[in-house]
From TrEMBL:
<feature type="compositionally biased region" description="Basic residues">
    <location>
        <begin position="8"/>
        <end position="17"/>
    </location>
</feature>
<dbReference type="Pfam" id="PF11176">
    <property type="entry name" value="Tma16"/>
</dbReference>
<comment type="similarity">
    <text>Belongs to the TMA16 family.</text>
</comment>
<dbReference type="GO" id="GO:0005634">
    <property type="term" value="C:nucleus"/>
</dbReference>
<feature type="region of interest" description="Disordered">
    <location>
        <begin position="1"/>
        <end position="26"/>
    </location>
</feature>
<dbReference type="InterPro" id="IPR021346">
    <property type="entry name" value="Tma16"/>
</dbReference>
<dbReference type="InterPro" id="IPR038356">
    <property type="entry name" value="Tma16_sf"/>
</dbReference>
<protein>
    <recommendedName>
        <fullName>Translation machinery-associated protein 16</fullName>
    </recommendedName>
</protein>
Length: 177
């Protein structure tokens, strides 16, 4: 049960000596309970949409943190970062090819295939324009990023950059705009 509804239910039960079930349909208390339920549903919906929006950046940060740990948590040069970016951009290619092969000839692409194509296209476009990654070229930032435990709020302490295809690096802010 959600928090607002729980508190409201408790207050009403206290006022009615524990009998919350014996409410009239249009009473003030039943209206309070409905409002609390709607508010909790709205908050859950907002939280789930926010986590859906944050998930790709968390996956990206996890990927680069794992790659950094494999290389010994030392600052990386731009060409190594570009290789990591290229690997990240093309990580859905195998799955896309597998979905394409399973489709029968003459059939339209499945929803999964469409989503994968959109994701791959967006990643390739971002790679051309400037890929959003943690700054792995400075030792202080590498140390800070290595201590990241998976929370969204900690990522704001890490400095982020955009690395373009022509190896230009531009500082950026988190979360990206």
């Amino acid at each position: 049960m959600a928090r607002t509804l729980e508190k409201t239910r408790k207050k009403i039960a206290k006022k009615r000596n524990g009998a919350v079930e014996a409410l009239h349909e249009f009473s003030r208390d039943s209206k309070r309970l409905r409002r609390a339920t709607v508010r909790d549903q709205k908050l859950e919906k907002l939280a789930s949409s926010r986590s859906k929006k944050e998930q790709p950046l968390l996956e990206r940060a996890t990927y680069f943190q794992d790659a950094l740990k494999e290389r010994g948590t030392v600052p990386l040069d731009i060409s190594t970062i570009q290789t990591l970016i290229n690997d990240f951009v093309h990580k859905y290619d195998e799955e896309h090819e597998e979905v394409k092969k399973t489709r029968r000839p003459g059939r339209p692409p499945s929803a999964k295939q469409d989503l994968l194509e959109m994701r791959i296209k967006a990643l390739l476009e971002e790679q051309k324009q400037g890929f959003f990654v943690p700054d792995l070229t400075t030792e202080d930032n590498v140390r800070t990023f290595d201590r990241w435990e998976g929370s969204w709020s900690y990522l704001t302490t890490v400095s982020w950059v955009r690395v373009a295809a022509d190896k230009t690096v531009k500082p950026s802010s988190f979360p990206p705009v």
